[in-house]
Design a protein that fits this description.
Elements (H helix, E strand, L loop, with lengths): L9 E2 L4 E3 L4 E7 L5 E7 L2 E6 L5 E15 L2 E6 L3 E4 L4 E17 L1
Length: 106
Amino acid sequence: MDDETFSNATVGKRANIYDDGGITSYELITESGERKTLGVMQPGRYDLRTGKDDRRIVEIYAGELSLETDGSSDGYGAGERYTVDPNTEFTLEVRELVEYCCTYRS
């Protein structure tokens, strides 16, 4: 498998659409059982929250955003990744269209 594809993955047919279409993704399950979403985020500000057992590792393929959590803000762009811990409120300020892959870990 290379960095551009997932082999032997099951992909959901229905889109996950949040914030009036500002964030759209599709869920996939890898051959090893790992849950991921692939999607895009339109420019805008999004207030989000992870679940109690929901650590997210987000890889950015294109675009730029800032992640605000616990009073601090960090910027991320193409080729970078960030992690959000379980049960965390956070804000994303998307400056330009972001393509991403999110891996869910417990």
